[in-house]
Amino acid sequence: MHLVTRAQWGAQPPKSAWTQVASTRGVKVHYEGEPVPADLPDHHEWCAGRVRAIQAAHLANPTEGWIDIAYNAVVCPHSYVFEGRGPHHETGANGNQPLNLAHYAVCAMLGDSGLTEPNDALLNGLCDAIEWLRREGGAGPEVKGHRDGYPTACPGDPLYAWVRAGAPRPARAAGAPAGHTPPPGASGPSWPGGRRGSRGPGRGSRPPQPPEPPPTGNRQPPPEQE
Ligand SMILES: [Zn+2]
Ligand SMILES: [Zn+2]
């Protein structure tokens, strides 16, 4: 997982202490709900600034009274997980306090125009963020959309379709070299490239996956791998 800490993206400190949560029922998925540049997938250098802008907008919001960026994490279309409030802190994004205590909130860098379709890298990042909140924050198994239990278009129809499908990790790790692509039929199609056919493996009978390629650069390997 490519975690970008608050210090690394240049977060402002919260206005007051976060509310601690021991655990949640799971995670709710969000989108930005405003225009996102369609060419953002070609410009990871924009992403940290975008997260700073989201935080600044939340801190300046006159009606919500947010003490910080509302999300526990923000995921960009390059698989990076930007730490928001982080694990064990109540989100402010789900609509009201009971909803905020029940689920963490992860926001995808997708909009209601421009970039509206999640790519595999973004979906892999969302899976990483959800697993991080389970591992570090006691998140339960549920993965839902903001619109579940609250009247909103969030997280948009394309991403909500992925949530409704069980939030599957794309079949091939983002950025994997072509030689590591499993042969056709060895695993399901990458989302949203297609639907599992009747000959495909059913959920719960996932075939062995090829090992992930070693990370590039000087990044340390993650402490644990599924
Ligand atoms: Zn939302
Ligand atoms: Zn990015």
Textual characterization of the structure:
- GO terms for molecular function: N-acetylmuramoyl-L-alanine amidase activity; zinc ion binding.
- Residues 170-226 are annotated as: Disordered.
- One of its GO terms (biological process) is peptidoglycan catabolic process.
- Strand 3 (73-75) and strand 4 (80-83) form a beta hairpin.
- With 226 residues, the chain is an alpha/beta fold.
- It has a single domain (2-172), classed as Lysozyme-like.
- 22% of the residues lie in helices and 14% in strands.
- The chain has helices at 6-9, 47-60, 97-102, 120-137, 157-164; strands at residues 2-4, 24-31, 73-75, 80-83, 103-108, 139-145.
- Strands 1-4-3-5-2-6 form a six-stranded mixed sheet.
- The protein contains five helices and six strands.
- The radius of gyration is 17 Å and the shape is globular.
- It binds zinc ion (2 copies).
- Residues 30, 93, 146, 152, 154 line the site of one zinc ion.
In short:
This protein has 226 residues and is an alpha/beta fold. It is 22% helix and 14% strand. The chain starts with a strand and ends in a 62-residue tail after the last helix.
